[in-house]
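Annex B.
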Amino acid sequence: MASSTMLDRDTLPKTVKPVNYIISLYGLEFTSFTYQGTVSILVKVSEPTKEITLNSNQLKISGAEVLTEQGKTQSSIKTTNITYEEKRQRATLAFDQVIPASDNVTIVVKFQGTINNSMAGFYRSKYKPTVTPAASVPKDDEFHYMFSTQFEACDARRAFPCFDEPNLKATFDVTLEIPDDQVALSNMPVKETKKGKDGLQIVTFDRTPIMSTYLLAWAVGDFEYIEDFTKRTYNGKPLPCRVYTTRGLKEQGQYALEHAPQIIDYFSDIFGIDYPLPKADLLAVHEFSHGAMENWGLVTYRTTAVLYDEKTSDAKFRNRVAYVVAHELAHQWFGNLVTMDWWSELWLNEGFATWVGWLATDKIHPDWDVWSQFVSEGMQSAFSLDALRSSHPIEVPVRDALDVDQIFDAISYLKGSSTIRMLATHLGTDTFMKGVGLYLKAHAYGNATTSDLWSALGKASGQDIPALIDPWIRKIGFPVLTIAEEPGQISIKQSRYLSTGDLKTEDDETIWWMPLVLEGQTGTPGIASLALTSKEDTIRSVDDDFYKVNKDTTGFYRVNYPPPRLTKLGTQTDRLSVSDKIGLIGDAGALAFSGEASTSGLLSFVKGFKSESNFLVWSQLLSSLGLVKSVFSSEEQIAEGLKRFVLDLISPAVKKIGWEESPGEDYLTGLLRAQLIMSAGFNGHQEVINEAKRRFELYITGQDKSAIHPNLRSAVFQIAVRQGGESEYQALKEEWKNTASVDGKEITLRAMGRLQTPELLADYLQFMFTDVPSQDVHTGAMVLATGVKTRPGLWKYIKENFDEIKARIGGNSTVLDRFLRVGLNKFAEREVERDIADFFADRDNRGYDRTLNNLSDTINGRAGYRERDAKVILEWLQVNGFA
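Aminopeptidase: predicted structure tokens.
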């Protein structure tokens, strides 16, 4: 029986559909890390068949039978043969009798699995306990283990045989046999606990609602929790929210716990649907491939995305925890209650949860100005990937499991959310949310497509949504709006933006609907809501003194102003919102990169920001200048000149902000101090370097641990390693091993990567692949890639050790893909691009093939920029006294 291949999707045969799973796991072995399992799947069989195909990956099926009921008679048909298709992650059970078509067939499968260490499926995480753990907790050396699951996208099949596709929804009953001194968690509350044999207990959970396999979850470990309740009632009582951690860490869950109940109440209100489950658990997992996973009722998190210590954590992690908690809780409705029909519409889940996650964060922390943060981080990341010819549309064809892992990227999350933000701004947030409510109610406990969302938004707004938004979703890329001025009017023209600047006619066929949101139309107080729906147009009655297109940067496009206008806007910064400033700086940098504007225009424009005091504006400024510095880092004269320019720009702000916190200081000021100090140190500000070294010395020798404020660890550690040598590096290696701070390992690992010598590089690379958990190897690679002295060594190491690297981290294709992407994307030499292409030419690159195409485009784009603008930049730096 052939499997169905709809639109080139490799899916299971449609004859068998699951209704309910009863999963029982027992015999958990804590030395070999194996377990035994039985799964009974109630299915509907739509036509008679002699075989049943399920998803199964790295499991050993020891036997299977089918139970059927015809009238009063029950019969059992045992399997006669089990065949595996490893590449397609399938097992086919063959029977010598025909299984009749029926709505009441049960497949019973006995199997054995492995609790792996690849952060996928049912896996183990190692950690160093802070207090004495329960006696049965497995350990080796100083490490102990906890166990949890990660099933998205297609890894439920690594834990138990199942029909592992998002639209094959079913209910689940889970039973786990575990040591009686440990705790078991799953999506639902515990139904009953029975005493088992020899110090074991058998924990059974309530039946889940109907849901996709990828949202099922369970965890076993030495857990403890803190609890709070929602203000609203659900089924007559407040909802319990808990943060679970391994023993000794629960107090660090307090910050997340302050957010979760508020967010659940907020979403229940704005979606018009009560939170659908009887509990909301958040679990900190010690090794985690992503940031978090929205399992229904049991959300799992990387520790730095859910734990926060008021005394020792860097304040920037507050923002991360608040946002990630909101993002995952948004999925409890959007994704879990209503699920995309197939992985090609992953963006529906992720784009929406990203947008509404920021919406909730903004509601709780209005002083953080998160939408400006979104413009500087979210939109700019989406722009940079979508500016490549090898980008992909938001809604992208996905064939199978290896395809889907690669689209958990800036397009699905950030271009997706930018598009939603643009549409929500156009329709009005209340109208937009009304449409979302209609969509969720219409498809609750089922699956839906992008078209279903558009149809609900159309009902709520009375507008033709597909006409506005389809090109944004189904076409690759985004537009740049080029402006030409005449007295009292502007002519505007849209064309696709490519960072390589080599647009061909065939690249430029899309006409996007572009909401212009114009400030400065004479006779129109405030903002004029106009739209461009053709390639070009003219807007009249425009104020010659001041106008701004794409007010607050809500439209997902770049704007190319005439150079004199950009320079003028640089003198009118008092009239620009924070998001406007960020958008203008981001656009100027990107257009300089593609050659549609000039780098000298960017440098002249940002000179106007010396007196800027906003963290988010500085963040964008330093990021846009950082790109220029990165591309020209091997051109010594330009690199030195750019350093002097940056120092000249930031010195007044560095002096003003100082090293010490002032009483009552706001959150963003604390972040700005850390950023300015780091930037000053990197660009050669001698006073800052001396002070950082002094504080580092006091801290590392233990003379004064308070010499470095938690928010300044990152800056001081990185300056110390960059300016120092072996002793600073080794001191931080010890700090990495011994830090008790939840973010300490990430901060220290990053700082160690600022090393400047080949000897330390060799040591760091070995350390990265022996001591550092694979969830964090990309952090090391990212820092090495930014260093002009370390970048080539990293690539050489990858070439010489690729098979070992793949064996170590390739068990999780997401981790390998991310490592290659961030480790190789900072080159600006065509010969390196060719070398990378040649190296991977004859290999099986499934799982990271998209990334290799993106890398090729990225490096060639950087090389083109370097070749084209080196002379111009050097001239500008010389004329302005910086070179």
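Confidence is low (pLDDT under 50) at residues 1-5. Residues 782 and 822 are 5 Å apart (CA to CA). Further annotation is deferred to the next reporting cycle.
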